[in-house]
Amino acid sequence: MTNTEDTIVAVATPPGRGGLGVVRLSGERAEAIATELIRFAKLPLETQRATVGEFYDPQDGRVLDQVVVTCFRRPHSYTAEDVVEIACHGSPVILKFLVELCLKRGARVAEPGEFTMRAFLNGRIDLTQAEAIRDLIESRTLYQARVAAQQMEGAVSARLKPHKQTLMDLIARLEAGIDFAEDDVSVMEWPEVLARLDAIRADLGKLVEGYEYGRIVREGLSLAIVGRPNVGKSSLFNRLLNEDRAIVTATPGTTRDLVAESAQIGGIPLRFVDTAGIREAHDEAERIGVEKSWQAIADSDLRLLVIDASEPWTDADSALLSRLQPLGALLVALNKSDLPPQISSAEMTERLPSSAGDAASRVEIVETSALTGAGVPKLREEILALAVPVRDLGGEEEFITSLRQQQLLKESLQALFKARQAAELQVHHELLLLDLYDALRALDTLTGATNVEDLLGIIFSTFCVGK
Ligand code: GDP
Questions:
Q1: 395 pLDDT exceeds 70?
Q2: What is the reported pLDDT for 182?
Q3: Please, are residues 10 and 24 in contact by the beta-carbon 8 Å criterion?
Q4: Ligand 1 and 371: CB distance under 6 A
Q5: CATH classification of 140-210+398-448, choosing from 3.90.1070.10, 3.60.10.10, 1.10.10.10, 1.20.120.430?
Q6: Cβ(227) to ligand 1 under 6 A?
């Protein structure tokens, strides 16, 4: 754990040269250190106003850089402590020297994430917001940034808040029923308890389900493009990217290595999984390589089988289809639709064994031409629709993106499930309370809140027990 009484310092801008480089200080001595190192025309610094100053070498008094300093006084700052941001010209030498001087004057180098951690420790943000700040910084598309920004404002916590309130309320009433049994405290009727528990479970369940989407938004979607040589995989891949990234050739088997190319569809980063390795294996080493490729294909979020519809169906197509189908949702592109067709959508449908129709085993067929671009927008739509089935989750961007959050929600749900069973059996309140506390604790851990005092407050304030 860090000592929040220290004043911490770090270069806040990325390493390297640039127009600007910002040094950030946070803590009690932030302002004192800044004013010792920088000459200003007028002091004290105004709060939340940019002030021009001269950063000089304390050895000889010579000016090193013209800087702009912004001072945020506690608690109205990023960390809720005194924060000073010094914008220098982006020379690594100047920035390094400035940080060294701050250290000499008693500051300490900030650990990674320590500014944000202080914001959390000082109660300015909760854990979901801290995670969102990290996601925002790491976002690769505007859509990802928008989702992160929403969470940074506390969308997840806001969504959980009423549920936590209901739980605390339930706990408070049941506790009161136990502690003050002889008093006239209204304890909730069982059907009411059940109804409340079910309402919370339904909404938490939705959030857990939404994680799959949240994960894809955060991490991107992996798509494996599979097909015989020369059916148009690379061409289609380029069309999806709208760019000429892979080399397209007219010789079968010469287009290779689509590894780690990335693009985006609807603001969701798309990762293409290399499927070049799946060919006929001639020896053991090749066989292992082929199996590895199939593993990567199975692990991807979605699979796209490309068929050359201008040629008759082949056994190789059948082999790929039967291997792909059990892996989950599948997209089939009947490519080269600009040429006279040998395989129609209807025939393709007939080749698919009838499935139970659940979302996981859905197959969508799209006619495409990588040459003209026909069908490619439809293909993009289907990729999104299949890979991300739960896009409509009520509040558009209210979904969780972190595995940590999902696991805690599941924990809470499990405790609520047990609580529900207990309530159905109308067990003693004390047993039910244990589960309710577990459910609440998981939600508290999720947002990083500690609520014992809150609970005591509710128990003793909202109930006029009068003793
Ligand atoms: P891959 O081996 O599956 O990656 O196939 P390529 O993308 O390298 O394409 C093989 C050949 O088919 C190239 O000559 C492409 O120009 C051609 N091709 C790909 N898609 C289409 C299409 O939709 N229509 C036509 N007419 N030719 C295509």
A1: no
A2: 55
A3: yes
A4: yes
A5: 1.20.120.430
A6: yes
